[in-house]
Amino acid sequence: MDENLTLDKDENMNESYNGKDSIITDGTSEMKTYIGMEFESEEAAKVFYDAYARRLGFIMRVDAFRRSMRDGKVVWRRLVCNKEGFRKLRPKRSENRKPRAVTREGCKAMLVVKKEKTGKWVVSRFIEEHNHPLGVTPANDRRTVILSQTPDEKDVKIRELTAELQRERKRSAGYLEQLQMVLRDMEEHSTYLSRNIDDIVQSVRVIESNEVAL
């Protein structure tokens, strides 16, 4: 593992393999999951493991990731079963509320991929076994939208929105500066008109005085 990486969740993991392969058959072809298996992108690995999860009867969850300390890009990703880990105990808010169903059972099944210098995403760890029964999950109950809601993608969206906000602030500052310039011009013009009016009034008074004298 590249030492120039940061790990979300701050977890240390042994990049070992459990010695078993998994085969996915879609009726026309079969694909074997193994250490060293390559994907063109992180998204391709997610799609693969999501299809694998659907066929076996569990739900994939996008889990921890590591970023490169050089450029901040994600270079390591862990995909797990949705029953991975255990739910944190929280204080009860109300005695009348129903307790939530147990959805975390400490399942160890996972697929870990990391980005190599070649640009390929390579499987570095694969655990096939689940500690709970597997079953077919209805498509409308699956949380496949999580593929577009990973923490790193949220960070990218936040950065984009922040940059847009900064651009809007600069644009607003430009408008404010232009408005202030217009107001200054109007004030100068008003002052000029006032002086002209004073001069005219003074000239009229002088003329009137001369007429009276004559």
From TrEMBL:
Lineage: Eukaryota, Viridiplantae, Streptophyta, Embryophyta, Tracheophyta
Pfam entry (one): FAR1
FAR1 domain span: 48-134
Sequence segments annotated as region (Disordered): 1-22
Name of the featured protein: Protein FAR1-RELATED SEQUENCE like
Organism the protein comes from: Quillaja saponaria
Bias-annotated ranges (Basic and acidic residues): 1-12
Superkingdom of origin: Eukaryota
InterPro entries reported for this sequence: FAR1_DNA_bnd_dom
